[in-house]
Amino acid sequence: QVQLVVSGGGVVQPGRSLRLSCAASGFTFSNYVMYWVRQSPGKGLESVAVISYDGNNKYYADSVKGRFTISRDNSKNTLYLQMNSLTTDDMAVYYCAKVRVERWFYGLDVWGQGTTVTVSS
Amino acid sequence: DIVMTQTPLSVSVTPGQPASISCKSSQSLLHSDGKTYLYWYLQKPGQPPQLLIYEVSNRFSGVPYRFSGSGSGTDFTLKISRVEAEDVGVYYCMETLHQRGSFGQGTKLEIK
Fold it and tell me: Which residues of A touch B106 (CB under 8 A)?
């Protein structure tokens, strides 16, 4: 079945970096737009970064632009989020999610279980 | 960015009674392809969000018939015809007209 397994979260000091991974299975990963969505403690959902199915187009929230980089390796069925210069504002559960229909920015139908990023000295 | 505004922010419902959540966008979500990129999600405690409704009014696979979506342009509504205990959680609307997408603040549904 369709599955997204997120890894890479943990505790990191302010200003340091972390890379999240999202391993996909059960669908043709290379045909789908993918999202990273985060949820700060007790807060709502924020779309952090989006990448087109071929990796050629990327979109970022203003809050992470210039610090975070979304990428994908379609040969490994894996999505990444490189997070640099982390601050306490980046503390959240990070989810990856796939869109419902191939090749366009449709709604998100399958979500990974999420990984927690804690920024603390 | 498109701003999504949900009302109310919380609702308490007696089982068997209806519930309604409104979502308003700061601009029309109608794309030139004729689709309206508005979605509804439910996040149950301790879980990732799950898709309920796609493109305004289409129930996703496995979603009970008591959930329905309606609206157009900038005004949208999620209705639950008869609330059940398993419907508790936070409901979010989301647009993807602009590729990155944006979510409403969420509406917490509790059972009386």
Answer: 44-45
Query: Which element (helix H / strand E) includes B91?
Result: strand B89-95
Say if the Cβ atoms of B94 and A108 lie within 8 Å: yes
Give residue-wise pLDDT tens across range B51-79: 999 999 999 999 999 999 999 999 999 99
Report pLDDT digits (tens) over A2-56. Answer: 999 999 999 999 999 999 999 999 999 999 999 999 999 888 999 999 999 999 9
B69: amino acid identity, one letter: G
Cβ distance of B100 and A108 shorter than 8 Å: no
Q: Do B51 and A57 touch (CB under 8 A)?
A: no
